[in-house]
Amino acid sequence: DSAIEDAILPTDFENLFVIPADDGLKGIKSGQTQLEGGELRLRSCLMRLSSMLDQLGGSSRIDWILIDTPPSLDRLTMNALAASDYVLVPVDPGAGGRGALGDTIEYVYSARKWYNPTLQLVGLVINNTDPRTIYDQTTEQLVREIYGDLVFDIVITASVRVRESAESRVPLVFCDSNEFVRYANMYRALRDEVLQRVG
Question: Domain ranges in the chain?
């Protein structure tokens, strides 16, 4: 129940801050905990934060807020969609990702209809794929045929380096080896495509 500004933590990296998740989210996700403000709670908190930062001005500005949600269509995800300007949907060829894609897009459209009429689906990114396998090649081809220009050009391939970066809590761009640099460049290319699409 603390104010969102009190939950913001600095990191070891300049101009990068996090609001970490905690176990309290489990109760909200399962429906056991009442969420005051319902599906619009996060949106309300971010609007208050934005207003506070506008009043401070100068170096207090935050350019982007990235909300990472679990791959589930639940109340937490709807809160994130209701609070967002844009949504980027990662498509994982394995683990049922291909089959769940249609449901995910419908969920985004539901969020736009009921809670956030200005929400824009910026696109789909093929993620965690192994282009050496026929299954993943077929998945990418199928997704591109169905969704066309919604699919980003960049493809993020699977790598243990990405997991190592996450586990060590060091962004890929700060990891020092050619293998890390290769994957960091994939995410830079994704960033560039996102910025190009949102203008």
Answer: 1-84, 85-199
> Own/partner pairs for 176-181, CB < 8 Å, 24+ apart?
none
The answer to whether the CB of 194 falls within 8 A of the CB of 122 is yes
Q: What is the distance between the alpha carbons of residues 165 and 198, in angstroms, rounded to a whole number?
A: 27
Residue written as token pair 């269509």: 73
pLDDT band at 32 (very low <50, low <70, confident <90, very high): very low
From residue 165, give the alpha-carbon distance in Å to each of 73, 95, 176.
26, 22, 11
**Size of the chain in residues:** 199
Q: What is the pLDDT of residues 94-122, one digit of tens each?
A: 756 677 899 999 999 999 999 999 999 99
State pTM to two decimals: 0.83
The CATH fold assigned to 85-199 is Rossmann fold (3.40.50)
Could you tell me if 145 and 152 are in contact, meaning their C-beta atoms sit under 8 angstroms apart? no
